[in-house]
UniProtKB/TrEMBL annotation, chain B:
Family: Belongs to the 4-toluene sulfonate uptake permease (TSUP) (TC 2.A.102) family.
GO cellular component: plasma membrane
PANTHER family linked: MEMBRANE TRANSPORTER PROTEIN MJ0441-RELATED, MEMBRANE TRANSPORTER PROTEIN YTNM-RELATED
Identification of the protein by name: Probable membrane transporter protein
Natural source organism: Qipengyuania algicida
Amino acid sequence: MRAALLALFAVFAIGARDPVLVPEVSQHEVQVRQGFKGTELLLFGAILDPAGRVGGQDYDIVVVLQGPSEPIRLREKERFGGIWINSDSTDFRSAPSFFAVASTRPIKDIVDEKTAAIYEFGTKYIQLSPSGVIDPVRQRRFAEGLVDLRSREGLYKENIGGVTVSGKVLYQARIDLPSNVVTGTYTAETFAIANGRVIASAQTDVDVKKVGFERFIASTAQHDSLAYGLIAVVLSVGMGWGAGRFYSMI
Amino acid sequence: MDVYLPIANLSVNGLVIVALGLVTGMLSGLFGIGGGFLTTPLLIFYGVPPTVAAASATTQVTGASVSGLFAHSKRNGVDYRMGSVMVVGGGIGAGIGSLLFRFFRSIGQIDVVISALYVVLLGSIGAMMAREAWQALRNSGKGTAAPRRRRHHPLVSALPWRWRFYRSGLYISPLAPLILGMVVGILSMLMGIGGGFLLIPAMLYVLGMSANVVVGTSLYNVVFTTILATMMHSLTTHAVDMVLVALLLIGSVTGAQMGTQFAGRAKPEVLRLVLAAVVLLIAFKMLFGLGVRPDELFTVSAL
């Protein structure tokens, strides 16, 4: 609501000719609790035409949802003396833990390659910030390896035609978050594109966090590891012993 | 039934995990081993991250072995003196193991090391067990007794400084069980196993302990070694998933009881042949994984 007012205000204040995007997400907070199987996020919103007309211009919409970035080391296996072992490796300073892009039409029909690369419209354009000595061929091999790996885990995906626009005003896209997503702040960026040019963009956040028992377990394991270990031992000894008693009675 | 594992960060089918616990529990009831050598690889095949799988499996083995330990201790089947020496060795081993774990992880070869260890250990022990069980089966058919074997390995008698272990019927150097415990402790940390399948043959054929205390003493050692390994994992890798452990335990404590019931009725040679087959199967699966081009050439680790 506030975003909508701000957007309206922006239109009047600046009097810009470009349209304004008002994005919204079905959930601003995804709670990871027992039984969490992943969730479906609905990213929707409206395109406000500066002249106030409904259905003025044709737009393409691209939605990019990114999970928190983390520095990673990527290792590549090679055959060595008959067995496959890790040999070469490279570091990426910011690999998003989740990356999904949805668009109304194939990206190459909407914008040129350079624009697509700037706005990260597609898994091959993810900015990974490689570090160390950069050999482009090797770097590309590693980047493709990472994208392939995470695509198979359901963490990186492209959904062409995943955005629908109705009445040239409302758009919506559905993005699946699998159960193996990491917690943190996810950013959803929406871009409106016309004639190969990004004419409006807007951003909104989604918080993914563990709650209740799951949160307690995860934080205890990390911060009170001694107590956590002792509880695990007691749980395991207790269950083993209890079961022994139980079955010897019946 | 979907269950979310908070440390592994993924959702699994709880019934599959309980069933997996049931199978390994039956093994532990039948053979007096914890079954960690089966749990860890199967969890990894199922998609649980290797470190979480190894850490949680050690915790589960504790639970699976506890009830067996009580049963054996009731009928004087535990040599506490021998077991305690091994546990001390196991503690030292777990410490060394966690350093090795960290070292192999830092050079990025931990998964290769784990697979290679599985192939070598399970392969050799499985082959040994299969041969022995097969011979015993053939002999029992002919009605001839198995050849009498020597008491213990000559290397064990060569060690200095001897102690008496009454229940095992041995007068040997405590260094032998100490070293054995240490080796098992290291492997326990690296492979997520209790080490029963290693200890039992080693106690029988290397130390030459009397057979009626072997399983009980092995369980005693396994319980304490896995407790140490659980603590070590909690403090260093933070990878013990309590929800995963609880699910595995529900299955394995039930399975252990079923196994114990069944063990009284089946022929021991046949049982050992079955165990040998299971062990060899896992070894082959691991070897296959090492030798064949993997589906995924790339692995990610956090910096």
